[in-house]
């Protein structure tokens, strides 16, 4: 959906309908955040599968992932809309620029808080999960090598 909204964004913004442009910008923002949220959930799942291998039963795990994957971005979007729906809209650039017909977040602070900071937190989480999984794999490998040396003796 992110790709579909992104590809139709310029065409839909050419209708010069403020409500349509706000809707397209909200959908684009939502699906972008949802894609990153699902990426973060995949890293958490990877952590659970490779580090916490045993005794990791989470009741209704898929339902909880779906609520987080679709709900957290919805909360962020709702907060931005409650603060000011006019944060979304058509770019205020001169018509000669190629990005003049594009609906997106117009307020810099809203962009940095609701997109850049959000993606940065997910990046840090994914990096931490990746390092933890690598350390776990390395420790399993070193234990296996140690056991094989003992058996050879």
TrEMBL record:
GO BP, one annotated term: adenylate cyclase-activating G protein-coupled receptor signaling pathway
Keyword hit for Flavoprotein: no
GO function terms (MF aspect): G protein-coupled receptor activity
Gene3D superfamilies referenced in this protein's UniProt entry, alphabetically: Rhodopsin 7-helix transmembrane proteins
Subcellular localization, as worded in the UniProt entry: Membrane
Protein's membrane topology: Multi-pass membrane protein
GO cellular component, one term: plasma membrane
Record's keyword terms, sorted: Membrane, Transmembrane, Transmembrane helix
InterPro entries given in the database record: GPCR_2-like_7TM, GPCR_2_secretin-like
A Pfam family reported for this protein in Swiss-Prot or TrEMBL: 7tm_2
G-protein coupled receptors family 2 profile domain residues: 1-153
Protein name: AGRG4 protein
Organism annotation: Dromas ardeola
